[in-house]
Every structure is written in C-alpha cells, then in structure tokens.
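Curious: explain these tokens?
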Amino acid sequence: MKEQLIILDGGMGTDLQHSGLKPGENPAVYGMTHATEIRDIHMKYIKKGTNCIYTNTFGASGNKLKGSGYSVDEVVQRNVETAVEAVRLMREQGRECMVALDVGPLGELLEPLGTLPFEAAYRAYAEIVEAGEKAGADLVVFETFTDLYEMKAAVLAAKEHSNLPIWSTMSFEANGLPGNFGSRHGADLGGSGGCGAGHQLFAGTEGNPSHCGVYDGVDELTDDYQAQRGSAGSANRGIRHHRG
C-alpha cells in the first residue's frame, strides 16, 4: 500500500437510505437481511474505480447491537463476507479491490469523562477486529472518533488481536480542534502501532454540515498515511487517499 494511490468509496449511509434503511435503524443490522443490496452498493463503487471499500460495520459494536438479536461476531462476519463477495465478483470482471473493516466509536464516553473503562473499550474493539479478520478483511479503519483515548484502545486492540494494517481518522467541530492535534494524533497512534493517521474537520452552514479533510501541518501527521475526505451536504462523498 505504501506506493499505491488508494481511492476509497463514498456515502454508504446515503446509499443505504435509498435502498430502504429506516431512520434510526442500525445499518450493520440492516445488512443481515439485505446482503444483496449491500453487495450491489459495494460493486457500484468498485465499477466506478474504487480500489478499497469500507464494510458495512461502522455500528457493529456490542453496545450498538443490544436488542438486535445478533452477536458482534455474526454481524461483522456477515457484512465483511458481503464485501468480500462483491470484490470476488468484480475480480471476475478484471477489477481489484481491498476490503477495509470499518469501525466506528462505541457510543460511550470512556473514563474519566464517562463510565466506560479503557479495558472494556479495548475488549470491545478486539472482538470486532478478530471477527473482521476471520471473515476476510484486508485492513481495519477506525473512523470519526472524537476521543484520542478511545482511539488508542481501538488501535491497541487491533495491533494485539490481528495482523491487519491499521488506518485511523478523527473528527472534530471547527471550534474544538486544538492547533497541535494533528501532530499529537500521529505521534500517539504511531506509538500504539497505527500505520496511518488523519483527521476530519466538520464544518458547514447551520443545519447542513459538510465533512472535509483539513490538515494543519499535514506532513507531521505520519509518513505512512494521510486521509482526506470531502462531502456535499450530509452525504459522505469524496476521495480519501493514500500517499506513499
């Protein structure tokens, strides 16, 4: 990956809404009964030139699956296998693509600001990563985190419970981004074994947020990976890329 330009996919959430996802419904759970729709979305992006797709597992943590009737292992395995199937079918048409296990925040604040112990967060991420690697993911990406401490738990879990390459991105409101955060993110996660780091700045008109990758001293983030994500309106669109 070090010398390869990587073009990632776009607004999975928006595509899922168009395919029938109801407001408030967990997309990862939706993927358990709508695997064909998820596969077709992945294939659409690969046909357009994507060479790394994100699995439909952003909300596949145990906390977010409570009451769904499914386990973390079941949800992660099914959604990763759906992405792997899409890649296999497109490979028959001469297109190659990697599968990134997409992992979002747990939805709980870690101590001391919240009640979730660091060790519990670590175990939750280890469970997700182990299931994703077993199902065939090529790498893991932790995205839209807002707590560096939680990101550290995630990266440590991935490093110690898998052999997957690790990407990480964090998101902040425009008025909440420390000026030295970029270098701290890269340095802290580099020490935790993260192979890539980036951050996203959420900015836009009131009621219509946009997501755009913003870098203040981008070269200080990491020598390995720099992520950039653009979007229009509330849809996550744009190109996220790797620079060797």
In short: Residues 72-91 form the longest helix (20 residues). Residues 28 and 59 are 6 Å apart (CA to CA). Confidence is low (pLDDT under 50) at residues 177-183, 199-244.
